[in-house]
């Protein structure tokens, strides 16, 4: 049976999974803080967690996602060298 040549390696999928987890954690950190009656102001929306921590976690997740997609496959690189020789 011939080995299939996938675009991503197992390591790429693990990195992408970690990135998705970081993005979800960032959005969960941003959520919440609604007012009790739906009309009054709740100052909790300006907390340090929502203003700075959550966006940084989300952006790190997107950066890891880009790295996971663009990271080279070690196995494929080795087989390309063998084919040329």
Please tell me about this protein's structure.
The chain is an all-alpha fold and 85 residues long. 65% of the residues lie in helices and 0% in strands. The protein has three helices and no strands. It starts with 9 loop residues before the first helix and ends with a helix. The model has no long low-confidence stretch (mean pLDDT 84).
Write the SSE topology:
Blueprint: H1 10-30, H2 48-70, H3 74-84
Helix pairs in contact: 1-2
Concise synopsis of the structure shown:
With 85 residues, the chain is an all-alpha fold. 65% of the residues lie in helices and 0% in strands. α1 (10-30) runs antiparallel to α2 (48-70).
Helical content band: 55-70%
Mean pLDDT equals 84
Overall 3D shape: elongated
Q: Based on DSSP secondary structure assignment, what is the total number of beta strands?
A: 0
Gyration radius (Cα, Å) is 21 Å
Order of helices and strands: HHH
Main sheet makeup: none
Please work out how many helical segments DSSP would assign. 3
Determine the structural class based on helices, strands and strand pairing. mainly alpha
Low-confidence stretches: none
| Oligomerization status of the protein chains | single chain
| Spatial separation of the terminal alpha carbons | 24 Å
Strand content: under 5%
């Amino acid at each position: 049976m011939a080995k299939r040549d996938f675009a991503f390696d197992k390591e790429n999928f693990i990195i992408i999974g970690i990135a998705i987890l970081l993005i979800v954690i960032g959005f969960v950190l941003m959520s919440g803080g609604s007012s009790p009656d739906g009309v009054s102001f709740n100052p909790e929306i300006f907390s340090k967690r929502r203003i700075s921590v959550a966006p940084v976690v989300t952006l790190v997740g997107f950066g890891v996602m880009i790295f996971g997609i663009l990271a080279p496959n070690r196995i494929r690189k080795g087989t390309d060298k063998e084919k040329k020789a």
